[in-house]
Description:
The protein has helices at residues 3-16, 18-24, 26-56, 83-92, 127-131, 143-148, 157-164, 207-215, 238-252, 268-311, 313-321, 326-363, 371-397, 401-406, and strands at residues 60-65, 67-70, 73-77, 81-82, 96-111, 114-123, 135-138, 152-155, 173-176, 179-187, 193-194, 197-198, 202-206, 224-225, 227-232, 263-267.
Amino acid sequence: MSFGNAFLTALQALRLNGLRSLLTALGIIIGIASVIVMVAIGNGARQSVEEQIDRLGSSMLTVFPSTRTSRGQSSGRYMPFSERTMYNVADQLPNIVAVTGDIQSQVTLVSADTDWATTARGVNHTYPLVRNHEVADGDFFTAEDVASGRRYAVIGSTIQREVFGENSAVGASIRINNVPFEVIGVLEATGESFRGRDSDDVILAPLKTVRDRLAGNWRPVPDRIDSMYILFRDDADIVEAQAELEEALRIEREIKPGQSDNFRVLSFASFVQARNETSQTFSYLLAAAAGISLIVGGIGIMNIMLVSVTERTREIGLRMAIGARPGDIMTQFLIEAVVLCTIGGIIGLALGLGGAWAVTSLAEWDVLIEPSLVLIAIATSLTVGVVFGFFPAQQAAQLNPIEALRYE
Length: 408
């Protein structure tokens, strides 16, 4: 029997028991569809995280003062950083590209008839380079603007949209806590959020201006900053750079041996490593879930194929009597199992793609369907058909023709 005839015979046999064939393939359909949706969501989440990391920079370290604790209770903050500390540390480490301080204050922006509560952040002129955050319209302030404490503001895209609408904010006069500022730029939208806050709902202004006019001076540290962002060269070993930074900070802040650090260093490199480990674990769980689902579906197909062999025993005997060889019988039933699994895989693939589209449209989650995923789904369906269809096909090929013809 040729492959084409065997394929047509398989399709005819499956069509005669259409409902049973569909129910038999249901395990494969559900398994493939669920894997497509879960993997697409996982890939989309991974891509989103990678884009954010690329935007923030895996070569950047963020340093915060630690919080004092006593008997498990927070008891205030350690001495904040100063600009002098930031620059002293930067001078000691050779792989640093740029640094910027950061000081924040909750403020109210007033423009025309609009009041908007937001966050003002005082930063240095190096902020766009360190944070990889470009200006979409206008300009960013310069080192001279920072040193002289000019009242310039660069606003986030959320403020541009909510306060100024379709009109360009560049050149507009605003009041921040009743202090007049001139808007000189609008930042590119990042779409990021942290602890439920919109990172595009922000005002950036020269560090000295925010500290002197909005956040207020703190006498023990007149040039205080709340945090510092430090950008290293791309080819620098970020783990080694972090160790050198921590040692330099301990010396600068006069921390004695044995005493705990009064600062925290946040590394996006370690975040990337943790994300990769989590993603790998998630992939293993997906593989296990997919494997179990497909095994259950394969067992169902094996069971139905064995039933089919029993029901068609006389047919098998008749085919053998007119010249069909055991190999022909085996090929016929094996092709039936493969065709059944392939059809189930295609239906599952279609449902999975539809489910991924629904997740994107309704839940607004990022999904990513790679072309290799489609090929893997089809290949998996074929493999399940061969593995779980082999035993029933072998059983059919080993029937005795005479006994098969006598079978009632």
